[in-house]
Amino acid sequence: MKASKLKRLQAAGWKAGSAAEFLGLSGQEAALVDLKLALVTAVRATRRKRGISQIDLAQRMRSSQSRIAKIEAGDASVSLDLIVRALIAAGASQKDVQRAFIAIG
Amino acid sequence: MKASKLKRLQAAGWKAGSAAEFLGLSGQEAALVDLKLALVTAVRATRRKRGISQIDLAQRMRSSQSRIAKIEAGDASVSLDLIVRALIAAGASQKDVQRAFIAIG
DNA sequence: GGAGTCTATGTCAAATACGACATAGCTGGC
DNA sequence: GCCAGCTATGTCGTATTTGACATAGACTCC
Predict the structure, then answer these.
(1) Where does residue A40 rank: exposed (0-12), middle (13-18), buried (19+ CB within 10 A)?
(2) In sequence order, which ranges of A50-79 are alpha helices (DSSP H)?
(3) Is B10 a member of any domain?
């Protein structure tokens, strides 16, 4: 069958080079974390630049103050979606976003 | 109490200018959708450029072929997190990622 | 020192996103 | 034709993420 073959392939993928895959994965995860951190910094910077409070920003994106606080704190329970939504809602300009990436580049 | 006042503020925020807020929100959502679309396109382009299949990519990021298909199809059940993870796993350069994100302007 | 504002942190039920799986369609080589 | 690999779509149980709420700390102004 198809599915069983697919599964065998996946199982094989696990066995062969699992250490390398782990390293690769952790590298990918690190890149994602870096990206999140940069964006989170941009959220706080943009919000402050616009002089709006966490409550204000929460209202703008139909979220709550506590979520904004968690976003800015880099809380693990915050998705990239939410971070970017906050960035957009805060009114980040293209330059703001670009600046966020400079740390990564 | 604090909380009740906060709640009143949020309720007021709802009432006053709800139409404008709705328009604002839908604009934000549109921006997010545009961003996702740009990234999704980059995922497929990068994957094809590297000559890897959806199964390959799925293994690289410990996901499944069906999820990759959904990512590339722009399925609503796919988060920005997963899209970016796919982009990174596909081997997109940081410049590629940046380029896609800059669309927020 | 009390009141107001802003931010941080923890909890929780409900909503959403996840991987896995099944299965179908499509294409190209045999 | 048939088979193989690749992709698309739907479902499902589980895991993660969410907004809301409570509450506490820091700081300012009266």
Answers:
(1) buried
(2) 54-60, 65-73
(3) no
Q: What backbone phi and psi angles, to 5 degrees, belong to A44?
A: -65, -45
- The DSSP-derived string for B63-94 is --HHHHHHHHHT-TT--HHHHHHHHHHTT--H
B42-71 residues near strand D (Cβ < 7 Å)? 48, 53-55, 65-66, 69-70
pLDDT tens for each residue of chain A, 105 residues long: 333 344 333 333 333 445 666 776 788 888 899 999 999 999 999 999 999 999 999 999 999 999 999 999 999 999 999 999 999 999 988 787 877 776 554
- Domain CATH for A52: 1.10.260.40
pTM reported for the whole predicted model: 0.83
Q: Is the CB of A28 under 7 A from strand C?
A: no
Does the residue B43 lie in any domain?
Answer: yes
- The number of folded domains in chain A is 1
Tell me if A13 is assigned to some domain. Answer: no
Q: Name the amino acid, one letter, at A89.
A: A
What is the residue range of B92's domain?
30-104
The answer to the question of residue A99 being in a domain is: yes
